[in-house]
Design a protein that fits this description.
The chain has two helices and five strands. By secondary structure, the protein is of the alpha+beta class. The protein has a domain of 38 residues. Strand 2 and strand 3 form a beta hairpin. The radius of gyration is 22 Å and the shape is elongated. Its main location: other.
Length: 134
């Protein structure tokens, strides 16, 4: 049987989940302006899907179940001079909303930082408790 989750396990798992979210956002932003010669090959944004892990009432954390591809369609743009243009002179731009990705990035970074603060506070409280016991 696994040992019960403690505050460090809970916050650590939450930080790992936010790191996956931040990596997905970085991938999306990196591909935001990319183009392709056809719609099927155009980059689509990716998103992690989280689920809750409940050990007992009041003790829960999060994990990444999977990473899914967005259904946001690629944008067709007429650019006959582009080397990837199809027979009609069109290229397909990645289905990524840069503004939404920036919001996602800020939110995941804040969530990560919140969990760092939880760990720092728990560590301080434990050290203070040990100091009081001496």
């Amino acid at each position: 049987m696994d040992k019960p989750m403690n505050i460090f396990d809970i916050a650590g798992r939450a930080m790992s989940a936010q790191l996956v979210r931040l990596n997905a956002t970085a991938s999306n932003l990196a591909n935001a302006g990319s183009v392709s010669g056809n719609e099927n090959q155009a980059y689509r944004a990716i998103r992690p899907v989280f689920s809750t892990i409940v050990e007992k009432p009041g003790v829960a954390t999060v994990k990444v179940d999977k990473v899914v591809t967005s259904d946001t369609p690629a944008t067709r743009r007429h650019d006959p001079g582009h080397p990837l243009a199809d027979a009609n002179g069109d290229v397909w731009e990645a289905g990524v909303d840069s503004s939404a990705e920036l919001v996602e990035m800020v939110e995941s970074a804040r969530m990560y930082q919140n969990n760092v603060q939880v760990i720092q506070t728990a560590k301080s409280l434990l050290l203070e408790t040990i100091r009081l016991g001496k």
